[in-house]
Amino acid sequence: MKKEFFIPDQWCAQETYQVMLKNEIWVYNRGIDAETLKRFHFNPVEDLSDAIEQLLWRFGQQARWAIVPDGPMLILQVG
Predict the structure, then answer these.
(1) How far, rounded to the nearest angstrom, does the alpha carbon of residue 25 sit from its chain's CA centroid?
(2) Considering Cα of 57, then 60, then 66, then 69, what sign does the dihedral take?
(3) Distances from the Cα of 69 to the Cαs of 15, 27, 74, in angstroms?
(4) 34, 43, 55, 63: which has the fewest C-beta neighbours closer than 10 Å?
(5) DSSP string, 23-44
(6) Angle CA(64)–CA(67)–CA(72) in degrees, nearest 5?
(7) In this predicted model, what pLDDT tens digit does every residue of 44-63 receive, in sequence order?
């Protein structure tokens, strides 16, 4: 409980990897190179349109997926 021990958002990595146990995570960003993303088991996305086309082809039109603009800074709820 010491203030210097706590790091804001320290839960982020744990929550992200729990999602990865059942789902793939594709990441589009500016700042982290593709090789680094691959090293941490993410699927890097160079072009959003191509990625969406690949996902629709792979999982079908009825597949469920989420686009999360601000990553772990959001709380999602499936309706």
Answers:
(1) 4
(2) positive
(3) 17, 10, 8
(4) 63
(5) S--EE--SSS-HHHHHHTT-EE
(6) 115
(7) 999 989 998 998 999 898 88
